[in-house]
Amino acid sequence: MTVVLKAVGIRLAYGIPVFFLVTFGMALLVDFMPGSPAQAILGDQATPEAVAALNARYGYDLPTLERYANWLAGLAHLDLGQTLFTREPVIDVLARRLVVTAELAGLALAMSLIVSVPLALVTALRQGGWLDRVLNLISSALLSIPSFVSVVLVSLVFTVWLKAFPATGWVSFVQSPLDNLRYAFLPALALALYETAFFYRVLRSDLVGTLREDFVLVARAKGIPKWRVIAPRHVLRPSLTSLVTLFGVAAGRLLGGAVIVEFFFSIPGIGGESIAAVGIKDMNMLQAIVALGVVIYVVLFILVDLAYAWIDPRVSVR
After folding, report:
1. For labelling, which of 31, 34, 91, 237 has a CA lying 20 to 30 Å from the CA of 183?
2. CA distances from 114 to 15, 250, 251, 261, 304 (A)
3. Of the candidates 108, 117, 115, which has an alpha carbon nearest to the alpha carbon of residue 147?
4. % pLDDT > 90, the chain
5. Neighbouring residues of 270: CB distance < 8 A, sequence distance ≥ 6
6. Which residues are CB-contacts of 221 (< 8 A; sequence separation ≥ 6)?
7. Distance from C-alpha of 166 to C-alpha of 186, rounded to nearest angstrom
8. pLDDT digits 0-9 by tens, 125-143
9. What are the backbone dihedrals phi and psi of residue 82, each rounded to the nearest 5 degrees, phi first?
């Protein structure tokens, strides 16, 4: 336990400077953006005096370092300011949106693993077979399809042709679990297509390499059936290193906000909120979203490093 805590502390020490660097860079954007948040609130017809007064009221006219120091002081008290138009606490809006995005990300990752892992196991055992060739073709196609095309395709198939799922909107799990899943399925599927193809190709490649290792050849020479050799304890577990890394990256990317998917399906998540915040120059919300993204990535990569040691005991977490 002491070794694990020490490893976590070392990785946090690397992550903290990254957090300050990225969030300070976000604070600098206010100085380079055309217009100002006050201009976005008052409109193009506002007088320069009114814009200057509103900028002074909310501190947008302060020097960058002072403005960033004020933001850090608020962060220490979990006060990230208020949204530009509705004047809600940013942390409340962020928490509400994060729940939605986390659900979509969790469903998408679950779909990806449920499909990709079994298929990778089967095709690794039957390399060069018809299923292997077909899945390689399909995975290559899915990897080449951009997200703005995948959302249209899944919507066309499941909404227009099959009429099985609603096109847009959202119902919370608390309101109706069944309706929540109906509304979440299509956006989660759109997110899962790319991840499934990526997970499949990487895991299959690692499984093929592991199957050629000496310990596997010895086990096969002793007459151990293929299904026992490829079981999690023997072949699957040592082949998971690359997949765990990709899983961490994918989870961070999806939790950071799948912008196009959430916008297309009108999902009230982090991605949709970030688009709205950019449009109205809501710097409080944008800086909070960026800070959240940094924290998510740091935490996930700490967990990925710890997972390496669990997968392969030869890997040190120090």
Report:
1. 91
2. 31, 15, 15, 21, 19
3. 108
4. 17
5. 94, 97, 98, 100, 101, 255, 256, 257, 262, 289, 292
6. none
7. 8
8. 888 888 889 999 999 999 8
9. -120, 155
Task: State how far the Cα of 152 lies from the Cα of 17, in Å rounded to an integer.
Answer: 40
Inform me whether the pLDDT recorded for 309 exceeds 60.
yes
Task: Lowest mean pLDDT of 212-216, 265-269, 278-282, name the range.
Answer: 212-216
- d(C-alpha 170, C-alpha 154), whole Å: 17
Q: Which CATH class is domain 90-311?
A: mainly alpha
Q: Which two tokens stand for residue 291?
A: 């800070």
Q: Residue holding tokens 């940094």?
A: 294
How do residues 266-280 score in pLDDT, each as one tens digit? 888 888 888 888 777
Cα(200)–Cα(203) distance, rounded to whole angstroms?
A: 5
Distance between CA atoms of residues 67 and 71, nearest Å:
6
10's tokens: 């070392």
Query: What would the two tokens of residue 257 be?
Result: 């906000």
The C-alpha atoms of residue 30 and residue 50 are separated, in whole angstroms, by 18
Residue 51: both structure tokens together: 């814009």
Take residue 101 and report the two structure tokens written for it: 């995005």
DSSP 3-state of 297 = helix
Say whether pLDDT at 51 is over 80.
no
Residue 82 forms beta bridges with which residues? 89
Q: Residue ranges of the domains in the chain?
A: 2-76, 90-311
Helix, strand or coil, per DSSP, at residue 273: helix
Q: For 82, which DSSP code?
A: B
Question: Residue 60, CB half-sphere, CA atoms under 13 Å: how many?
Answer: 24
